[in-house]
Write a structure and sequence with these properties.
Growth Hormone, Chain: A, mainly alpha
């Protein structure tokens, strides 16, 4: 598509008030997945008792949600490239609403597990279409800045979701959590229907059917730089997932913290991650996404190595674990939005498919970190090994596969900021 004469992307030419409303709704949409995954976590023991099953079986309901999120992105992304953004988005959130409502009356584990898969599919529609809409409306640095804003939501939602779920449980049973998710889904459906325009014009849609989708995915896999960038995001997420999955055991069992102390420490790590994504917006005024991504990955590798050495030698006590760990999270917060923006900037003609593959790889590679920490023993050293391994692999892929120094700077040249 020929760029406009004024050099501004479509989103930057929107009135400020409308642009803000669109960005706000996109932020809420990206929160649907984390809320769906994490909000019912405090209720797992109650569900286990009520449905007369065991903890291992109940964990399958979480696995079902994650499966729906991964597969849903691969299916809905190409669909949104073919028929536009609004219809798959609204249909997906509607599926989420219906599945959430049926979870309220689920009589057994099999039914609940099936409905959780459908919830994941609906949440996937919100996630992948939100990213595609960003790519439809914004280019270059404007897109990188917006991804930083959305990363704020993605970082905050998993922290707040268990707390919200716990508050709901103070007033009702575990089924009330799904009532709350139903209400959230209804509100998001209404907000999306009233606020989000159709951002993919008819002449830009891809109507090749199943074979066309296969060709699009095949073409994406032939783009070495794109594949490298989505692997960078997935491997950086692996470091983050290692922290999320292992920190509760390390800090509570290893260092004797209670639940309240752990919550404060966990929030401290989240502050570093979230703060970095927002500081990235400022950094983009002076440096390119390539420069920020490579520098943050190198810094994360150094901090990850320090974490591994201090954990293995038990040097520095609790501070020897927390300080380098929080620094790694900060570098992840800088790397992720820039790698995402660079990846999607390469395939604006198939933004939905490109966003879907990025999300599925990011989620799939990152999710492997959780069981890996458990296999290694759920100790500070085990967590540090996976964190360092994720950063090492991400940095290696960045420099050996992506080769950011060879990317054309003009594809990410500065544009007018859309929100400050």
């Amino acid at each position: 598509m020929t760029p406009p004469a004024d050099g501004l992307s479509p989103g930057e030419r929107l009135p400020l008030g409308r642009r803000f409303r669109i960005v706000l709704v996109l932020g809420f949409l990206t929160a649907l997945g984390p809320l769906t995954i994490d909000m019912y976590l405090p209720a797992l023991p109650a569900i286990t008792t009520d449905l007369h099953t065991n903890a291992a079986a109940i964990q399958l309901t979480l696995t079902g949600t994650l499966l729906g999120l991964a597969l849903g992105q691969l299916l809905i992304g190409p669909l949104s490239d073919a028929v536009g953004r609004r219809r798959p988005l609204l249909a997906g959130i509607t599926v989420h609403v219906l599945a959430s409502a049926l979870c309220v009356i689920a009589p057994n584990l099999a039914t609940l597990g099936t409905l959780r898969v459908l919830q994941g599919l609906g949440a996937a529609a919100a996630a992948v279409v939100a990213m595609a809409i960003v790519r439809d409306l914004f280019d270059g640095l404007a897109a990188a800045r917006l991804f930083s804003r959305l990363m704020l939501v993605v970082g905050v939602a998993p922290i707040l979701a268990p707390t919200v779920g716990g508050l709901v449980l103070n007033w009702t049973s575990w089924r009330g959590v799904f009532v709350a998710l139903t209400a959230i889904g209804v509100a998001m459906t209404a907000a999306a229907a009233l606020t989000l325009p159709e951002t993919l014009q008819t002449h830009r849609r891809r109507n090749g059917g199943v074979l066309g989708t296969v060709r699009d995915y095949g073409r994406l896999f032939t783009d070495r730089v794109y594949v490298g960038l989505i692997l960078v995001t997935g491997l950086a997420m692996a470091a983050l997932f290692a922290y999320v999955s292992g920190s509760s055991y390390v800090l509570q069992d290893g260092y004797g913290m209670n639940e309240q102390q752990f919550a404060l420490i966990f929030a401290g790590g989240a502050v570093g991650l979230i703060g970095a994504t927002q500081f990235n917006v400022r950094l983009l005024h002076r440096w390119t996404p390539q420069q920020i991504m490579t520098t943050s990955l190198l810094a994360g590798l150094i901090f990850g190595l320090a974490l591994l050495v201090l954990a293995a030698t038990r040097t520095g006590g609790l501070a020897g674990i927390l300080v380098p760990l929080w620094l790694v999270l900060t570098t992840v917060g800088l790397a992720l939005p820039n790698a995402t923006a660079l990846a999607l900037s390469r395939h604006g003609e198939a933004a939905g498919t490109a966003a879907a593959l990025l999300g599925a790889v990011q989620f799939g590679v990152g999710a492997l970190a959780a069981p890996l920490v458990g296999i290694l023993g759920v100790t500070a050293t085990a967590m540090a090994i996976v964190v360092f391994g994720g950063m090492l692999a991400a940095t290696a892929v960045c420099f050996l596969v992506v080769q950011p120094h060879r990317l054309p700077v003009e594809q990410m040249k500065p544009t007018a900021a859309f929100v400050h």
